[in-house]
């Protein structure tokens, strides 16, 4: 085991103390990702078998899927409800606990995007073709057929928007936050592959690279495929009606197949021609179009009443959220009707959120490197939901106002019987209706094709093997998954339209729910280990303080300490310090550790951004976490006060200086040791070594995998996490 760790920790840098065998280079060499063939084969076979079954035996397929859905609703509906409730509670706990201070990346990492840019991207994540579809269809459906009681009553009227907000609210976003947190934590903090299986590493260790990990990835892929297919199916029927309304294009399977082909075609062009940035810009522009559309509806309608309704709807939602989160309607006086409502609404939505969780979670993780757990969870739960709430409340209340207050019963019946017609029919009744509908079609079409493209990108990522979290799957894999989703969507629409897609999503979401629980348990164990690291610092502090005092009882030379804090070294000065002071000091520590039978190694390696070498002292403890003391040179801007206060005699150059920061396995510890004497530096190493030993002692009672450093390379480069604001 030690030899394997040594190979992992030391592939490239030169050993000064200790020996090692060169291992695999995990330095993101740019090698193309490889297909994970077991995952690809199993997922593709299941997807195609389902599609073929639906195409050649539609009645039998519809009967079987309907029967399974009925059984799931009756027997396992509680599991869907409990899973989402537990995920929401778990994420709130993370945000409020001291675990909220952990970063999605090394301890020294800074957010890649400003707070405004990050919030804008989260805002955009809340928009999609599904929100457009259900913002009108669901409030009218809930008013017409509520889960309990009579429809078209004052109670149904009051609850209609609140139910819509519940199904699109923080409960579902908690699932996205959970997946995004798992992706970001294991990939950016622990350097593991950006894959679902990485989240299981604390539970089963290296077995994630075997059949268990493959099974998890298959479950995630199947959920994503059916979730994307459901979204494409909903988008197809809605866009088909809009195109018929504006351009007179026929409604039917032929046109729907053409729209699916369009989405696949865009994904194919994106994959093979490298126009991903163009697709991204279209998606960003679409956010502005959608916002403009929302504001148009607000200001051409009963603006004051709509804003009053938004506030009321939010209050109702927040008041009823705790009760509805756990609502299974087990005391319903009409169990059959309630079960049917649950299958069509809450259970379908929860399964849909579960299916999309890996997809959206990956996006959230990629834009959130450097954020703390607390920032990530609060931002993910709140920012997208604000837009969803505004959209559903403004559009939904406009629809209810027309159906109820204006007594447009034909509109109500049309939207309930054919939900895909409700959105465009509502817009057609506004001033400039045809133009508004055309803009809405454009918005929906862009959401439609970008969802297909993004879905293919994520599925290719999940079915690839790559050590680089930023590396996407091969273009041919994106083409393959686009085609598979297209075939599945068309087959499902042929059987029974949106209803069949809903039932299939409900079924396929079940296996991944098991993975959701495993991810929460894995994160709990990881958080426990992170917390133990923090606690070990306080316990080891007494030893550190004692080591700072000379035998005579006098403090170390305070004037030398003051000189050190007022010096801003150049690369040449820092290089001289590393060679003359730091390197001999760490050599002495490594030699002494080896003399006491510790498996210690000291490496020296070139640095990416400076000529100052880095030193990497590591000690391996078998199956337990590795101790690392890495001196890493960080180029920093000289503070203004250094020049202003007349400290120029301490400056080697006026613009930048070098900090020799101490790094552990999780990144920078935040302090600079330049100017330490040999004895001070040795004491600092021993302080941190004592802390690590205390941490190992605290870990002894932990179950599962205790060492999460499997994918950490030797003398890692940390430069990408500096200088990002």
From TrEMBL:
PROSITE patterns: BCCT. It is a multi-pass membrane protein. The lineage of its organism: Bacteria, Bacillati, Actinomycetota, Actinomycetes, Mycobacteriales. Belongs to the BCCT transporter (TC 2.A.15) family. PANTHER family: HIGH-AFFINITY CHOLINE TRANSPORT PROTEIN (PTHR30047:SF7), HIGH-AFFINITY CHOLINE TRANSPORT PROTEIN-RELATED (PTHR30047). This is High-affinity choline transport protein. One of its GO terms (molecular function) is transmembrane transporter activity. It comes from the Bacteria.
